[in-house]
Amino acid sequence: MNRIEVLKSLVTFSIPTTKLKNELNKLPWDSEDPLIVLKKDHLLQIIEKLRKNKITLSELIEWANLLEVREDIEYEKPYDTQINKIIFTIANPELVSNDLNVFKDFIISLVNKSLRNNIK
After folding, report:
1. What is the pTM of this model?
2. What is the DSSP string of 27-72?
C-alpha cells in the first residue's frame, strides 16, 4: 500500500487496527503538509460502527491513538476543533471514566452532540 492508501484506510477505519499499525510503521513520520482530510462524516460512520458493535471500543481507542500523532492528516474545517477534541478524548479514555461502558456511551453522545448537530 502506498502512503495515501494507508492514510485513507486509517481515516475510514476500513482495515483492522493491527494491519493499520503495521502499514503506518512503514511510513515516515514527518510530513510538510497534510495529505488527507479526516472528515466529520468519517467519524460519524466509525461511531456508528461502534454503536452497532461492528468494532470494539478497544479497536476505536487504538484507532484514535494511531490518528492522534499523524502530521499527514488534517481535520475537516470548520469541524476541526471538535474532531480534534473527540480524537483526543477517544485516545485517552482514562480522562473520562475507567468504566468502558460509560466511556462508550459518553463517546457516542459526544460525537452526536458535536458533529450531528453541527455545533461549531
Report:
1. 0.89
2. S-S--SS--EEE-HHHHHHHHHHHHTTSS-HHHHHHHHHHHHT-SS
